[in-house]
Amino acid sequence: MKNRMGLNRVTHLFSRCGVACLAAWSFWALGALPEMEAPSRGDSDNTIQTLQNHAFDIVTLIALLISAASFCGVAYHAYTTYSEVQNGKKTWGQFGLTCGVGAILLVISIWLLTKGTGIL
């Protein structure tokens, strides 16, 4: 029983030393982290202006994601139309119309998103 209590104390001491060593190592490792990049419009002396510049970057990223999603949607629809042409359910004219309308929709959506981010 006495041996077991001594072993528990030693284990407890080693675990505390281990936690202390990990904490010290983590502070040392934080010194090598890179600095945060400035937003694309640059830093400002004003905090509000800097936050607005970061918000512009976020909105631009969201617009890029919307453009990518619309491209994937048009590509998926064109692929399903192509598959239906191969099965004989649709004609090549319908496939061409799908691709043409999809391309026009992509151009319009990317143009509108670009104009929208320019307003910010």
Descriptive keywords:
3 helices, 120 residues, 2 domains, elongated, mainly alpha
Detailed description of the structure:
It is built from three helices and no strands. Helices cover 82% and strands 0% of the residues. The chain is mainly α and 120 residues long. It starts with a helix and ends with a helix. It has two domains: 1-33; 46-119. It is elongated. Helix 2 (47-87) runs antiparallel to helix 3.
Major sheet attributes: none
List low-pLDDT spans.
Answer: none
Termini separation comes to 73 Å
Shape by Cα distribution: elongated
Order of H and E elements: HHH
Beta-strand percentage? under 5%
Mean pLDDT score: 83
Q: Percent of residues in helical segments?
A: over 70%
What kind of oligomer do you see?
A: single chain
Question: How are the SSEs ordered, and which strands pair?
Answer:
Blueprint: H1 2-30, H2 47-87, H3 92-119
Quick recap:
With about 120 residues, the chain is mainly alpha-helical. Helix content is about 80%, strand content about 0%.
